[in-house]
Design a protein that fits this description.
single chain; mainly alpha; about 85% helix; about 0% strand; rod-shaped; coiled coil
Length: about 70
């Protein structure tokens, strides 16, 4: 599961919620799901950025050791 997948699911939940009546309990559940998917997408992006930073640091350290 990646951030794009979570964003797509959040958008789908919001589209489905928009099709329901304002007082429909399912609407609120879908909106909550959309928020959860958006939150997870942010977490995955942060995690990916950290991993990329660690990878770059490891590569730089390896290059320094070779030189």
């Amino acid at each position: 599961m990646d951030a794009n997948y979570c964003r797509e699911k959040a958008a789908l939940c919001l589209r489905l919620a928009d099709g329901l009546a304002l007082n429909n309990p399912g609407r609120f559940q879908l909106m909550d799901l959309a928020e959860d998917f958006q939150r997870r997408a942010k977490e995955l992006e942060i995690e990916a950025a950290r991993d990329a930073t660690r990878s770059n640091a490891t590569v730089m350290q390896s290059l320094e050791n070779v030189a």
